[in-house]
Write a structure and sequence with these properties.
Structural class of chain A: mainly alpha
Strand content of chain A: under 5%
Strand order of the largest sheet of chain A: 1-2
CATH superfamily of the largest domain in chain B: Periplasmic binding protein-like II
CATH topology of the largest domain in chain A: MetI-like fold
Radius of gyration of chain B: 26 Å
Shape of chain A: extended
Oligomer: heterodimer
CATH superfamily of the largest domain in chain A: MetI-like
Number of domains of chain A: 2
Number of strands of chain A: 2
Number of helices of chain B: 23
């Protein structure tokens, strides 16, 4: 075989190998992608398209008709205080305030303490992270028993006040929702704590040492150095909270099933669907999606423009 | 990868996924195995063995039959999914509560089993004389038929009745004996007598020691997790309204055959709510204050421990609590007749039962006692008047219209399913079911069936109620489009009347609750009416 022929042969052979490798690689990528794409099509595209269509449908004795009635019903019902939907909206705002306005700063503060390795920080880390790894059902059961009418909390209060105290923490219109909010606060620390301490640990030590040499107090260190430097993590977390403002359900199913003025929008929709009604909850879902999109976009814009992203 | 190739590749992936998705939608349906009858049964208070025995007995006559039994507490959800998707590998579902009529109308997923009702019960070659339609109790039979407003389905049967015993008041005889003294109390025949007993129990200030801790004995205990109170106050409403008005006005919300909001706020409903408020409200101290936060099994355990004298639930109670380490001498009794029925009776028949409220109450109590003792007349009452009170006394709440079997339209063994159901309603099938669950299927002539073994007082009480010729079952809801399609549900703030009236703070009175219901329904009425036909 002449060198020329030899080159042509190997060139052709090499092209064939390259093509085979490419096919195999494409097939491999296809195999990897097909499940997520399928998942996306079924659980996002199909579900949302169907849900949007259902929002404008109504099943009557004449069959399914197209109508805006689900929306008019919603606008009428939000004005009736006796109905769950208005209680649910109020409670969703309470959950948002608990999670964002109270929960996030507290979690940030806690993460800062752990980052600064205060005395016993290892134990505190375990204590605050524990609720995140225990099953929600177990945790709710535990919490309900602790706050039961004849539970330990009332027993302790009875000892302190030297009289029989039987506060009905879990079945009282005025208290139960706040008990659930406290539960959400307590059980929600774990996830945020991991994220914030992780972000804080990435801050160069030199920056904090310089600040210390300049006589920077702990408060100033947190507010003026740490928060700006972990802002991408913090803002993402806040954005998640804001985008969930209308869909949050809280652990209502496990606690009260919406009784004692604890209904939330997420649970309301679930309850409707469980009762075989899809069209009305679809309209509610669509309405709140439309309301929350501009809120999320504006918030993101504000977050991005308030504090400049710091590279380190 | 070059951009052009990237687009091509993405398009290819997208189309492949779409094809796969289409094949998931149109193909690969979940279906049973031809020749193997799969029966899925909700595992609740009636245990998890009866259908195994029924299958064994059925196979004796049909040795070639393969039957798979699936008992699970999740069968209700499986059934719901089957109804909504039209896909299932089960050939029969037995459940308590599922949106069956929506399954018929909207999803077309429930098979028409009318042929079952025109066929006769059959055990092997032995066929009975009457058809299954004739064998099932008429009020239950009516509930098994499509009762909606779509002409295509009218007159057809889609449901098959399952066990459905009485739901009523249960007395803890041991607790009553220790609280009021043996022989110093009697079964309450009227609601006022029940309230008087509650007063006596509260006044006795009895206490009970359990595992070292001392508890006050209350007249009642309950749980807000289950809606058992309605077994009592729905019966009171029916007693006051009469069964026809109860079914037509209270359940179907109709007056003269037309939907009318006022039907929802009948006088009987006010009376029933007022009576339950007296039991529930905190200031009377008739109910253990821990009730509202209790899980129902905890309440039932406390009842058996003797921490309360009365409990309201269904005939499955004894079987449900078999595994509990506590037991008590219990008895199920008929729901006491609502005391204000005396006024209604006087107005209806223009007669007087007594000079004042106390005298009327005593007369009513005596008449009811006479009825319970099997007497057929009462001095001073005409036959019509006596029968009117006796029929009222016979009204008994049951879950019969929500406790049923369905055959999914997708079943590949419909013939086998029908054949098994024919065996199920045969005398032999009824007896097997009764021996195992201690509960009767809703058939006429129930008195001819006797469960095997010695019966507890509780079971005797249940069977006495069941067998009395004047017992007439009432239901808590109707298979009416206003309920299953219109979503008529007026629980104010998602709280049942009993939960709203029994709370410590923010509790409402019966009148307040009904007023809130009225506000709520008047706002929703126009929307509800869009889901149903005019009449």
């Amino acid at each position: 075989m002449s060198p020329k022929t030899n080159f042509a042969y190997y060139s052709k052979y090499s092209r064939k190998i390259r093509r085979n490798v490419k096919i195999k690689r494409d097939l491999f990528i296809l195999a990897l992608m097909i499940i997520p794409v399928l998942n996306y099509l079924v659980f996002f595209v199909y579900v949302n398209a169907r849900s949007i269509a259902m929002a404008f449908q109504m099943t009557t004795s004449q069959g399914t008709i197209w109508t805006f009635d689900n929306f008019t019903r919603f606008f009428r019902e939000v004005q009736i205080p006796e109905l769950d939907i208005s209680v649910a909206i109020k409670n969703n705002f309470l959950l948002f305030i608990e999670g964002t306005v109270i929960g996030t700063p507290l979690c940030l503060l806690l993460s800062y303490f752990l980052y600064k390795k205060i005395k016993g920080y290892r134990i505190f880390r375990v204590i605050f992270f524990l609720p995140s790894i225990i099953s929600g059902v177990v945790l709710v059961g535990l919490y309900k028993n602790i706050f039961a009418t004849n539970g330990p909390v009332n027993e302790i209060l009875s000892i302190i006040f030297q009289r029989q105290i039987s506060i009905e923490w879990m079945v009282d219109d005025n208290i139960t929702m706040y008990c659930i909010l406290f539960f959400c606060l307590w059980s929600g620390f774990g996830g945020g704590m991991i994220l914030y301490t992780g972000a804080m640990n990435r801050i160069p030590k030199d920056v904090l040492e310089y600040a210390k040499l300049d006589g920077c107090s702990s408060f100033r260190e947190l507010v003026q150095i740490i928060i700006p430097m972990i802002w991408p993590t913090l803002s993402t977390q806040l954005l998640f909270s804001i985008s969930g403002i209308f869909v949050a359900s809280g652990p209502i199913l496990l606690f009260t099933k919406g009784q004692f003025k604890t209904m939330t929008l997420g649970y309301f929709i679930l309850e409707q669907v469980e009762g075989g009604s899809y069209e009305y909850p679809s309209a509610i879902g669509l309405f709140f999606t439309l309301v929350s999109i501009p809120i999320v976009l504006i918030t993101r814009k504000i977050f991005n423009s308030t504090i400049e992203d710091i590279q380190y | 990868m070059k951009p052009r190739h990237g687009v091509k590749f993405f398009a290819f992936t997208f189309l492949t996924a779409l094809t796969a998705l289409s094949s998931c939608t149109f193909g690969g349906e979940i279906q049973g195995k031809k020749g193997t009858l799969k029966i899925s049964i909700f595992e609740g208070g009636n245990g998890s063995t009866a259908f195994h025995k029924l299958a064994e007995a059925y196979k004796k006559y049909n040795p070639e039959a393969n039957i798979e039994i699936n008992y699970s507490p999740l069968v209700r959800n499986e059934c719901q999914t089957a109804v909504e998707t039209g896909q299932s590998d089960s050939d029969i579902f037995f459940v308590d509560g599922c949106t069956a009529m929506k399954g018929v109308e909207t999803y077309h997923s429930i098979a028409d089993i009318s042929e079952l009702y025109s066929s006769t019960p059959k055990a092997g070659t032995k066929e009975e004389n009457m058809t299954i339609a004739e064998k099932i109790q008429p009020e239950i039979l009516e509930q098994m038929r499509y009762t909606g407003d779509m002409k295509d389905y009218q007159g057809k049967y889609y449901l098959a009745p399952w066990v459905s015993g009485p739901c009523s008041l249960i007395m803890n005889v041991d607790a009553l004996n220790s609280t009021l003294g043996e022989g110093k109390w009697s079964t309450p025949r009227t609601s006022q007598e029940l309230l008087d007993m509650c007063d006596r129990i509260v006044a006795s200030e009895s206490k009970i020691k359990i595992s070292g801790a001392t508890y006050k004995v209350y007249p009642f205990i309950y749980s807000s997790a289950v809606e058992y109170w309605r077994y009592l106050y729905f019966t009171w409403i029916a007693q006051y309204m009469g069964i026809e008005s109860y079914n037509e006005e209270f359940l179907r919300v109709k007056i003269n055959g037309k939907y009318d909001m006022e039907a929802y706020f009948s006088e009987g409903k006010y009376k029933g709510y007022e009576e339950i408020e007296k039991i529930i409200k905190r200031t009377n101290e008739y109910c253990d204050p821990v009730s509202l936060g209790n899980k129902f099994m905890a309440s039932q355990k406390y009842f058996l421990q003797g921490r309360a004298c009365f409990y309201v639930t269904g005939d499955w109670f004894e079987r449900e609590m078999e595994g509990s380490s506590y037991s008590a001498n219990m008895k199920m009794v008929r729901t006491p007749i609502i005391s204000c029925f005396a006024d209604k009776f006087e107005k209806t028949f223009h007669v007087s039962l007594g000079a004042d409220a106390a005298a009327k109450e005593e007369t009513l109590r005596n008449i009811v006692t006479a009825i319970d003792n099997g007497e057929t007349t009462y001095s001073g009452l005409s036959e019509e008047q006596f029968n009117y009170i006796r029929d009222t006394r016979g009204l008994t709440y049951t879950l019969g219209n929500t406790s049923y079997g369905i055959v999914p339209e997708c079943s590949v063994n419909k013939d086998m399913a029908i054949d098994f159901l024919r065996f199920f309603y045969s005398d032999e099938g009824i007896q097997i079911n009764l021996d195992d669950t201690k509960a009767l299927l809703p058939v006429v002539g129930a008195s001819s069936f006797q469960p095997a073994g010695e019966l507890s007082d509780f079971r005797k009480g249940v069977l006495d109620i069941y067998r009395a010729p004047y017992t007439k079952f009432i239901f808590g809801s109707a298979q009416d489009p206003i309920r299953y399609r219109g979503g008529l549900d007026c629980n104010v703030n998602n709280e049942t009347p009993e939960a709203a009236m029994g709370k410590k703070s923010g509790a409402v009175t019966a009148d307040e609750y009904l007023e809130k219901e009225r506000v709520l329904l008047s706002n929703r009425w126009a929307d509800i009416m869009k889901y149903v036909s005019e009449n």
